[in-house]
Amino acid sequence: xxxxxxxxxxxxxxxxxxxxxxxxxxxxxxxxxxxxxxxxxxxxxxxxxxxxxxxxxxxxxxxxxxxxxxxxxxxxxxxxxxxxxxxxxxxxxxxxxxxxxxxxxxxxxxxxxxxxxxxxxxxxxxxxxxxxxxxxxxxxxxxxxxxxxxxxxxxxxxxxxxxxxxxxxxxxxxxxxxxxxxxxxxxxxxxxxxxxxxxxxxxxxxxxxxxxxxxxxxxxxxxxxxxxxxxxxxxxxxxxxxxxxxxxxxxxxxxxxxxxxxxxxxxxxxxxxxxxxxxxxxxxxxxxxxxxxxxxxxxxxxxxxxxxxxxxxxxxxxxxxxxxxxxxxxxxxxxxxxxxxxxxxxxxxxxxxxxxxxxxxxxxxxxxxxxxxxxxxxxxxxxxxxxxxxxxxxxxxxxxxxxxx
Length: 405
Fold this sequence. Notes:
Blueprint: H1 2-14, H2 23-36, H3 40-53, H4 57-67, H5 88-97, H6 108-117, H7 155-165, H8 183-199, H9 204-220, H10 226-241, H11 248-254, H12 261-274, H13 284-294, H14 299-313, H15 323-337, H16 346-352, H17 356-372, H18 380-384, H19 400-404
Helix pairs in contact: 4-5, 8-10, 9-10, 10-12, 13-14, 13-15, 14-15, 14-17, 15-17
Domain Cyclin-like: 191-273, 286-368
GO molecular function: cyclin-dependent protein serine/threonine kinase regulator activity
Keywords: Cell cycle, Cell division, Cyclin
């Protein structure tokens, strides 16, 4: 009788349906188990097929080297310059297949010399951009020629695409449509989110994407519980940008259990449906990273640029400007604040597509925000950039010459 019960239990387990969620994942797991059970003869047969497909031994070595990269200690993120570590043997194998020395040039002339050694390869057409067999690399990208994560061959096309896409799905002036909120309430919410973002040590991309989600949702729907929208926008941005997003319980604790778990998850679903899950947008931070590099900013200037840009997140008046002009204005205002000899170079004008007079109106908003920050009740950004780790750049007097002009 016990044997019959065991047999019936096995039959029930065998008839159990696979879950509907992520069916491809379960199929992939089953395929992986089948591969692990292959015999040595099957592996030899696969190697023979590979040799037939790639008769060139040098190409086979290159594929093996690329497929065997291990020991990755830090994840690849969207931020330029993310580092991965591989074994020395693998790096030498990859570089040997390209006949290139194993080094990363920091000198301009050395980068040019090494770039000449690299054979011109025909690149496939992607994303509607024209094919480039010998791409022209800008001077500021020469030190990153062999940093594959910097994609110097495509970076100009990428930012051309970003400048086009920044106008798609932009937030609009929504305060007239919101009877329950005003610009002051929005500034309080952004100040609170900046505080949470800094305490949790989240990525800068997360902060800028959070503010975009808030403004975009407020442009589409009326809101009464603004803090709930801010919490859910932060949760969505963390899930999109971070490796380890804060849990719902953490957000509930931050808000002193003002909202239940069901309310948070329900609002999260509502926001995503309103935005049609469109989250891959060029925020101001994407342009800031590029413009800081073009400006050849030292650490002090870089901190000042990000300080002014974060102050700009609280200013509702800047919502009418596209992200690229806000980022360019932050660079220009920072140069004026620190008294740089050349405020707006030809390289900055070429890469930003804005001249100095086009930035004045937006820059004045940033200067006023800097001027009122010390006496304001919303001082999270100001106190943050008074810290030594950010060079204490908030202590500099604002560039009042821009307002006087």
